[in-house]
Design brief:
Elements: H1 2-16, H2 21-27, E1 30-38, E2 43-47, E3 57-60, E4 78-83, E5 93-94, E6 98-103
Parallel strand pairs: 3-5
Antiparallel strand pairs: 1-2, 1-4, 2-3, 4-6
């Protein structure tokens, strides 16, 4: 019985600790931009000049985005990218962990 109780508590904790898309939008760093190019490996975003990042373009991937996020974009789409705050200082920037990509409604 104790093993079943431990398993139940672990399951409850895991489901209760999951972040939702709404939580991501409310708490995670983000930047706005326009899709310049996209392919199977990565999407290149031209970062909005009003966004305080150290570069003007960034590569992102849709590999691990949350349910409810966009999973495909086209050139010219305006988007908001929510991420964990880490970026590889290259040119263009590389954003290794993207949580969500949503339409940017000006």
């Amino acid at each position: 019985i104790s093993a079943m109780l431990v398993a139940l508590l672990v399951c409850l904790c895991l489901t209760g600790c999951r972040e939702t898309l709404e939580h991501i939008v409310a708490t995670k760093p983000s930047f706005r931009g326009t899709v310049i190019r996209t392919d199977d490996m990565a999407t290149l975003i031209e970062i909005d000049p009003e966004t305080p990042l150290s570069g003007d373009r960034a590569y992102i991937s849709f590999k691990n985005v949350f349910e409810g996020s966009l999973t495909e974009v086209q050139e010219g789409d305006k988007v908001v990218v929510y991420f964990d705050g880490r970026m590889l200082e290259s040119s263009p920037l590389q954003i290794p962990t993207v949580y969500a990509v949503l339409p940017w409604e000006e």
